[in-house]
Amino acid sequence: MTDTVKENAVHRRAQFLEVLGIRTEWLPRVAIVAAEPAEDVVALADAGETAEAEPAAQRAPAQDAPVGATAEARGAGGRDGAPAVGRAPAPDIVSPLLPQRAAEIATLDWAGLEASVAGCTACGLCETRTQTVFGVGDRAAEWMLVGEAPGQNEDLQGEPFVGQAGKLLDNMLGALNLARGRNVFIANVLKCRPPENRDPAPDEVAQCEPYLRQQIALLRPKVIVVLGRFAAQSLLRTTTPIGKLRGTVHEYEGIPVVVTYHPAYLLRTLSDKARAWEDLCLAREVHDRAGAQA
Ligand code: URA
């Protein structure tokens, strides 16, 4: 690394620290691009969290157990606060019509995709939603952020990540010189809110997945940042805990993917903000590298 590159990196880190509210004595204990996070980091990140003390609206999904794990294994708290119920079993049976549905969705342009999502009745969530939440942002963006599913506020407002977690997310984006609607597109794995803040069920994920896939195909971002355990495990089709997914660059359809914590989780786990900051640094490096190669 040249001195200028090092200085830029230090400056960027300082910016992140300020925006994320991390004092300098909380400097991260792991290297920025750790191929495998250090044992204690993984242990900490995978220890599981409970959210009893937090206001409902600030709770986040548990960050440890895989998609499909029981509520007990995952810890308390749904996506936006209420007790999580009806945990999803391991993904298995899906509709035989799914391949045809996926093939049709794969032909849609942005307008067609948005209309298809708005009118979707492929799973039971259409009966309980207020509206679908398609995603928001620049459709030529180089950055894409992927969360889990709309919560109560998102269901009401029709936009992903509104509320306290959204504010933190916006601050994180600001630290990257990004803003909602400018060079970033934000979407969720699910386009409809699961009732009672339960985890998305496997059939819901399966029916909705072609939408996210096509959003990514149309956007072709330079980097995808996945927010939280559920989104990471769904997109990467893995059961690996988030603590182990962080720190490495993954790939989805040839696009680099960086995994970080869900902003709602970060609101109540101050110490992990430093790790989220490392993840964002990694994402920035991946993005800049892709830009240099373009
Ligand atoms: N949590 C998510 O994962 N997505 C949202 O849009 C809101 C909360």
Automatic annotation (TrEMBL):
Residues 53-74 have a biased composition (Low complexity). The keyword Kinase does not apply. Its EC number is 3.2.2.27. It is an enzyme of class 3 (hydrolase). InterPro entries: UDG_Type-4/5, Ura-DNA_glyco_family4, Uracil-DNA_glycosylase-like, Uracil-DNA_glycosylase-like_sf. Residues 134-281 form the Uracil-DNA glycosylase-like domain. Keywords: 4Fe-4S, DNA damage, DNA repair, Hydrolase, Iron, Iron-sulfur, Metal-binding. It holds the Pfam family UDG. It catalyses: Hydrolyzes single-stranded DNA or mismatched double-stranded DNA and polynucleotides, releasing free uracil. Residues 47-88 are annotated as: Disordered. The keyword Hydrolase applies. Belongs to the uracil-DNA glycosylase (UDG) superfamily. Type 4 (UDGa) family. This is Type-4 uracil-DNA glycosylase. It comes from Cupriavidus pampae.
